[in-house]
Amino acid sequence: MAVIALFDKSFLQSLSVDESVFFDQFFLSVICPMFYVETLADLGKAVRQGRTPEQEVGIIATKTPELNSTVCPNHLDLCAHNLMGNGIPMDGIVPRAGGKRVKVEGKSGVVYEPSSEEEAFLRWQRGDFLEVERRFAKAWRDALTSIDLLAVAAGMTAMGINPKTCKLFEDAKKIADSFVQSAEQPLDRLKLTLAVLGLPPRAEPFITAEWKKAGFPPLIKYSPFAAHVLAVELFFQIALAANLISTQDANNRTDISYLFYLPFCMVFVSSDRLHEKVAPLFMRPDQQFVWGPDLKADLRRLVEHYSALPQAEKEKGVIRFASTPPKDDNGLVSKLWDRYLRPWREPERPVEQDPLKNEALLKELKRLVDLPAVSVDEFEPDSEDVAMMSVQHQIRTRRGSFRMVSEEVERAERAR
To answer: What is the pLDDT of residues 320-378, one digit of tens each?
Structure first.
């Protein structure tokens, strides 16, 4: 149980390691590719205080959530999937890439093998930053900068979009929204969509065929996630042309790209002023923008609270002694839990653990992973028997000043 949070580098960089422990404990973090892109850009920069670029990136990596985190697929892959008529969740659930269909004694199941983004995360945890940059982050960064701006500008003009009419961010947002909400000239809209998203022209006939089958509804209805990304990108290009966003700061390109992943969170945490101004324009009423320094201050207060616990209590591990924020607390973290995770303040019911059942479940999950894939015809995606998915995380037993799990749990894991 945790609040699903998208975060950017500026926020994580501001935290101490101890503060990052409780951010990880009380929030389920969305790790999006833009976080790697932004952080690994430091590998090519001169770094303050005499640190090497690798050391600077390593400091941020030590604070990266690992206990409660979900790695999100790249937005362009999701857009292509969505434009082909496939659904993408838009209600705060983080999508997963791929999946091997299997059958277990007549029951259907899906085994998710590591995606490229998840492979990057595993290398990140091991400190293989140069390899993450070489194999993953550089390609994601190149995709952001490979958009044909002349083609986009020509397409915007052809569709009657005039950035010079914009005086406010809200004006740019209205123009972007009107584009994805209109059903007029669908083929011309698709051409501009492909140019803005940087998708290859060869995809056009396949997407056109699927969109035509659906009756050419507005993009916002046919392909909601791709429409969201398109609206963010159009907004950015319009705001640049209208001088609402500076063209001098190269970081704005990466900063705006975090907004592509807003549909997959409950809260977006950032210490970036551009995010503070723009992100709320693209968030649902049930979402909340959280100013990074405010959350950092509350996490610092919680660090002080838990540091004052008796040593015997702290030896149980953060996972045990801080399963929820303090029940009588009224800080920012607790208020976010109140909004999204009610009724967490009620007394917890003791849960009896059955070691035999847990061992049997572990064996069943291992068997599921080793099964061969079945064909689409054999798979029943709507069956009530689809019930099992295994997600593994590597976590350190100690982080900063705190033990994450008890010594007994640590010994048991070593004995496996």
So the answer is: 999 999 999 999 999 999 999 988 888 766 555 555 455 665 565 566 555 565 454 44
Please provide residue 290's backbone torsions phi and psi, each rounded to the nearest 5 degrees.
Answer: -115, 120
Please state the pTM of the whole predicted model.
0.85
Burial classification of residue 215, based on how many CB atoms lie within 10 Å of its CB (0-12 exposed, 13-18 middle, 19 or more buried): exposed
Closest listed residue to residue 5, CA positions, set 309, 394, 405, 340: 340
CA nearest 36: which of 113, 126, 140?
140
Phi then psi for 402, rounded to 5 degrees? -120, 145
Longest distance between any two alpha carbons in the chain, whole Å: 69
What was the pLDDT predicted at 386?
43
Name which of 52-56, 211-215, 270-274, 364-368 the model is least confident about.
Answer: 364-368
Other C-beta atoms within 10 Å of 139: how many? 14
**What ranges in 115-183 are assigned the alpha helix state H?**
116-126, 129-132, 138-145, 149-158, 169-181
The neighbour count for residue 377, using CB atoms within 10 Å, is: 6
Contacts of 132 (CB under 8 A, 6+ apart): 36, 40, 120, 123, 124
Strand-pair category, 107-111 with 100-104: antiparallel
Give me the pLDDT at residue 104, please: 61
First to last CA, the chain: 27
Please return the burial class of 353, using the count of CB atoms within 10 Å of its CB with bins 0-12, 13-18 and 19+: exposed
For residues 159 and 229, the answer to whether their CB atoms sit within 8 Å is no
What is the rounded distance in angstroms from the CA atom of residue 296 to the CA atom of residue 76? 31
Would you say 19 and 318 are in contact if contact means Cβ atoms under 8 Å apart?
Answer: no
The residue among 194, 186, 195, 187 whose CA lies nearest residue 218 is 186
- The pLDDT, as a whole number, for residue 159 is 73
Give strand pairing partners of 70.
Answer: 30
For residue 53, the SS3 value is helix
Find out whether 12 and 20 touch, Cβ atoms under 8 Å.
yes
Tally of CB atoms within 10 A around 310: 8
pLDDT of residue 380: 47
* Confidence band, pLDDT 50/70/90 cuts, at residue 253: confident
- For residue 222, what pLDDT is reported? 95
**Beta strand pairing status for 402-403 and 398-399?**
antiparallel
Q: What is the pLDDT of residue 42?
A: 78
Query: Helix 292-307 crosses helix 17-26 at what angle (to 10 degrees)?
Result: 100
